[in-house]
Predict the 3D structure of the following.
Amino acid sequence: MSHLLPLLWAAGGTVGFALLFDCKLRDVPLAAVGAILGWGVYSLALDAGSPKTAFFAAALVIGLWAEIVAVIVKRPASIYIVCAILPIVPGSGMYQTMLESVNGNLPGSLQAGFETLMAAGAIAAGLAVSSAISRLLSLSSLGRRFRLRWRAPRPLDRPAPGSDTGRLKGGNDGTGGHKPASDGDGN
Amino acid sequence: MSQEESSPDPEEVLLLAADAARIVLESGAETYRAEETAQAVCSALGGVEAECFATPTGIMLSFYGLDGHVRSIIRRVSSRRMNLERIALVNDLSRKLYAGLLDFEGASAELGRIEEIGGHSTLLSILAAALGTGFFTLLFGGLWNDALAAAAIGAILSRITRALAWRRISDFFTNIVGGAAAAIACLLCARAGIVTNPSIAIIGVIMLLVPGVAITNAIRDIIAGDLVAGVARAADAFISAAAISIGAGAAFELWRLLGWSIA
């Protein structure tokens, strides 16, 4: 019983914040189920292993749930992720970190800050893995085809405006292609 | 992609794409979603190639029209407030545009409608804030009386922050006020004997302000290779957390000066 009540509370809190984030009413229960799954996995993994594993596993489960729901109802997965992730997200850790440094307690602030970043990193990694899995299983094959197609059109049948074309095309071929890579170069 | 006969004015397309990306970003979406939305709108409506670079505070979009000209636009995004329904609707719009179910006129009318969509009613969002803060206080180990007090304080706090945001007060100041108000209210309740664990109640109430999702999204952005967006989001998260803690820290300091105990 003591393990089941927090599930209810995680769901209730998620419902509250989903409504606060102007989530449509019919999406709210789906997000709440994600929160229950996430918190359940989190507390099970916390009993079995370290906090980092627990954060990672919970984020993975929430991410997969959101991806599955997203394919079924044809809405972006992140609206379910944002709500369902709230119970495990290290909001109080951020507050604790800065509160300790406002109080001038450097070791305490570093400790809390490190734990917060670890938790956030573990959650982010879990979500990244879940979205990679869903791509691999082509759960989101619709979305992927969509994405590849709109990257694809090359300016082959573009009316040639003269000698500029070669230069433009050259520069274009150099920077075109995968978005993350070109973003990384740009920064 | 040969829509030369029916293709709308490239400038209009560019404006539409930039607006779609801006709405998505203002509603709190990830930067990659804003980029993909803008690119989808451009290429669906006859742009040969579109490139978009978005950060949490702005969008740069440029595109090759079928006439061989390059056009670009920059949009600043100054206010961000979570609105998941808008994100879903714009996503739906770009999907429909790409599938050819919508033309330019339809899309701009639809986007106008999406821009008009407000949030839930005041009553419902007050209720939502109370629900969220109350249940999170329980989740963090608070007792029933802590949760009820936190729910009442959270409901009021959500209105205070909304009112300050309306008056275009900076987020930093809003967070200081929010942190201080939450801490003072919870400590007062503790003094009156209503709240048993004020520190848990404070954390529950502060869930309304605290950037837990922001720091997670920052790391997600960095993992995905959106380095500028990720670093910007992380800075935003730390600054908001700092503001909240300055407010709460000031309240604690006041309590110390008054010689009252902080349980």
Residues 1-5 of chain B have pLDDT under 50 and may be disordered. Strands of chain B lie at 49-55, 58-64, 70-76. The two ends of chain B are 67 Å apart (CA to CA).
